[in-house]
Amino acid sequence: MERSRYIESNTTTILLLALQFERKENLEKDKLRVLLVCGSGASSGFMASAIRKAASKRGLEISVTARSEAEIENYIDDIDCLMVGPHLAYLLDNVKAIVGDRDIKVTLVKAQDYAIFNGENALDQLLSLYQ
Hints:
Elements: H1 2-30, E1 32-38, H2 42-57, E2 62-68, H3 72-75, E3 81-84, H4 92-99, E4 105-108, H5 111-115, H6 119-128
Parallel strand pairs: 1-2, 1-3, 3-4
């Protein structure tokens, strides 16, 4: 009798943990995943931080990762949006070719916002892609 209660209790615990894990995975899938690229990943790091701060102030769940444009293909299957630094405008056609027919939004960050790391405006630009 005690053994069957123990097994039943463990089974319930395992099921609850599995449901919590599944819920967490679904929440993470609902989070907008953004890749922001620049030449070396340095300036995009500052911009990504500004966008994350702006999103947090608005209570939005957005993941913004900053990388070099050379790393796009390493992240392409794990993102919803690709933001490109304005100094890489000449690469925009190549970037769009890499994205291909994937359901990924591509946008060139406005130079005036990128120059001063205006995360609020960049976030507005990003969100406008989904309206």
